[in-house]
Amino acid sequence: MAGNIQITNNIRKLRFFADEMTQQSLAEKAGVSRQTIIAIESGKYNPSLDLAFRIALVFGVKIGEVFDYEITGENK
Q1: Does the reported pTM lie above 0.85?
Q2: Contact 67/7 with Cβ under 8 angstroms?
């Protein structure tokens, strides 16, 4: 596989449906800083697998409901 992986997330939507959970509240529950949540939500930072699972646990959903990916470029 020579393509690039584009990771997307549904964190903003999940926060909205979780009684409009704040980024700060999510950060505290996941054990990271608010800046980390902002960076992940905006697609500027990809979380570790451990953190991705912790975020999913906060929302009570499977990791695939929080994060998705697409292969772009050559040899999709």
Answers
A1: yes
A2: yes
For residues 24-54, b (16+ Cβ closer than 10 Å) or e, as one string?
A: ebbbeebebeeebbeebbeeeebbeeebbbb
Q: What token pair was written down for 35?
A: 């800046």
Residue 54 is predicted with a pLDDT of 98
CB 5 within 8 A of CB 68: no
Q: Please provide residue 10's backbone torsions phi and psi, each rounded to the nearest 5 degrees.
A: -115, 25
- Do 3 and 65 form a contact (C-beta atoms < 8 A)? no
- Amino acid identity of residue 33, one-letter, is S
pLDDT digits (tens, 9 = 90+) for 3-61: 899 999 999 999 999 999 999 999 999 999 999 999 999 999 999 999 999 999 999 99
Rounded-to-integer distance, Cα 5 and Cα 19, Å: 31
